[in-house]
């Protein structure tokens, strides 16, 4: 009788090793992380495409507001027309004697140009809209329809520019006009050249001024 063989036959075979549920190699871990990142990116992209997006910087019809003010015998400066691709995105009017009036414009490159009409200390206006330490440059004589022959120029360390003048006659006598912003000097001069007090063109209907603050 072969005892050794009988005992070997009687011994139970070891249970087969269960395969690992996860690939614990570096490559497997990297693949899992990549799959997670792709899933999150796909979900975020899907939500961005399907959810309602807020509208920022809505266009405003400044000419309609100017027509409304002109019907009330209020004189405000405004651009006769804007260069192609430009738009007005905010206006502000404060009833006063004289009133305070501002228009915010965006160029076709989304650079900002602001137009301010206000009677007040120029240093205060510069501090509010340009910089508390705005540097004065050489006087300029840009084309404009307001009768102003001399404009002071300003700039700040952030690259903003500005033009200012105090009108000496007409309905805006002693009021300051300030044109400023991040747009180039050439773009600001284009706005200056278009500023006017003339009646709005025919066909522009008067609408109430729904205004917002801007700086």
Keywords for this entry:
215 residues; alpha+beta; seven-stranded antiparallel β-sheet; two-stranded antiparallel sheet; 9 strands; globular
Q: How would you portray this structure in words?
A:
- Helices cover 28% and strands 20% of the residues.
- The protein has 215 residues and is an alpha+beta fold.
- It has a domain at 62-196: 2-Layer Sandwich (Phosphorylase Kinase, domain 1), CATH 3.30.200.
- The chain has a 7-stranded antiparallel beta sheet with strand order 2-3-4-8-7-6-5, sandwiched between helices.
- Strand 6 (152-155) and strand 7 form a beta hairpin.
- The radius of gyration is 34 Å and the shape is globular.
CATH superfamily of the domain at 62-196: MucB/RseB, C-terminal domain
| Mean pLDDT level | 80
- Percent helix among the residues? 25-40%
Distance between the termini: 106 Å
Q: SSE string, helix = H, strand = E? A: HHHEEEEHEEEEHE
- The CATH class assignment of the domain at 62-196 is Alpha Beta
Major beta sheet summary: 7 strands, antiparallel
Trace the largest sheet across and list its strands. Answer: 2-3-4-8-7-6-5
CATH architecture descriptor name of the domain at 62-196: 2-Layer Sandwich
**Structural class of the secondary elements?**
alpha+beta
Q: What is the name of the CATH topology of the domain at 62-196?
A: Phosphorylase Kinase, domain 1
Helix count, DSSP H or I runs of 4 or more residues? 5
Shape: globular
Radius of gyration: 34 Å
Question: Beta-strand percentage?
Answer: 15-25%
